[in-house]
Write a structure and sequence with these properties.
alpha/beta; 2 domains; 12 helices; Ech1-like; Enoyl-CoA_hydra_C; Enoyl-CoA_hyd/isom_CS; 2-enoyl-CoA Hydratase, Chain A, domain 1; 320 residues; globular; 13% strand; Lyase 2-enoyl-coa Hydratase, Chain  A, domain 2; three-stranded mixed β-sheet
Length: 320
């Protein structure tokens, strides 16, 4: 009885202990040994504005990690997004990525105070040289989100709270979008006197397939709330809160990670190619792609598992 009471008291103290700042409780199933461990930092991923953790086997969690600045995207973030997703693209252990925002919201957009000098005081001796520098700057910023699209690993955006300006550029470059009920989306650039120039105007029409709605959002900068985002196709699911959303995002990532990485990554590459090309061109590209990919052992392993009525989780696919 005494041992039982001590155990109960210890359990209560553990449960009532405050959660460390910056960490959120995960509802994802874990082993008994892992339940009290914080997510481990992913090797070779050390950044100022991002936090990358190994959430589960084959799954990385990328967080916009400036909660004290409302996850505003500063110079470091533009640079580190390229570095981060370039590494992920080459990581043979990673099969899926979840990207989210630390703190109370996803992102408030660009950090105007940090980037004002780049935009308002560009360097150059004349109009031609200033323009050349600005074009290079815009191209670098565009690559910060295009690198997500170029990454062959599926990227799931998990959005809560505000997703403003550059945040919309970011999430439209992702493959799947989930959001919490408190999320809203805002193409904010017209309110600061410029046209969105790092992806929203190019990707959003293709994501939601409604040019009239895109025009309305881009011309007015009005907020699109979660239910409208779901109805328009910007997100595929809405959840009551951030915790449920993240749990679902990681469950989805885990499901994707059980499939053949050759099949999943080939699918992403061809979906993006088909979006930008005709059906005939895309079929030709697919035939050329699969003339080599059909020779993978992953097909044999997957078919064998199906015939033996085994779960694909039990199949050991080689790294890619």
């Amino acid at each position: 009885m005494a041992v039982s009471l001590r155990f109960r008291d210890l359990l209560i103290r553990r449960l009532m202990a405050p959660t460390p700042q910056g960490l959120s409780l995960s509802l994802r199933p874990m082993s008994s040994n892992a339940q009290e461990e914080a997510p481990k930092e992913a090797p070779d991923h050390s950044y100022e504005s991002l936090r990358v953790t190994a959430a589960q086997k084959h799954i990385l969690h990328v967080q916009l990690n400036r909660p004290e600045k409302r996850n505003a995207i500063n110079r470091a973030c533009w640079r580190e997004m390229v570095e981060c997703f370039s590494k992920i693209a080459q990581d043979p252990d990673c099969r899926a990525v979840v990207i989210s925002g630390a703190g109370k919201l996803f992102t408030s957009g660009i950090d105007l105070m940090d980037m004002a000098s780049d935009i308002l005081q560009p360097q150059g001796d004349d109009v031609a040289r200033i323009s050349w520098q600005l074009r290079n700057l815009i191209s670098r910023y565009q690559e910060s989100f295009s690198v997500i699209e170029k990454c062959p690993k599926p990227v799931i955006a998990a959005i809560h709270g505000a997703c403003i300006g550059a945040g919309v550029d970011l999430v439209t470059a992702c493959d799947i979008r989930y959001c919490a009920q408190d999320a809203f989306f805002q193409v904010k650039e017209v309110d600061i006197g410029l046209a969105a120039d790092v992806g929203t105007l190019q990707r959003l029409p293709k994501v939601i397939g409604n040019q009239s709605l895109v025009n309305e959002l881009a011309f007015t900068s009005r907020k699109m709330i979660a239910d409208e985002a779901l109805g328009s196709g910007l997100v595929s699911r809405v959840f009551p809160n951030k915790e449920d959303m993240l749990e679902a995002a990681f469950t989805l990532a885990e499901e994707i990670s059980t499939k053949s990485p050759v099949a999943v990554q080939s699918t992403k590459v061809n979906l993006i190619y088909s979006r930008n090309h005709s059906v005939a061109e895309s079929l030709n590209y697919m035939a050329t792609w699969n003339m080599s990919m059909l020779q993978t052992q992953d097909i044999v392993k997957s078919v064998q598992a199906t015939l033996e009525k085994k779960d694909l989780k039990s199949v050991n696919f080689s790294k890619l």
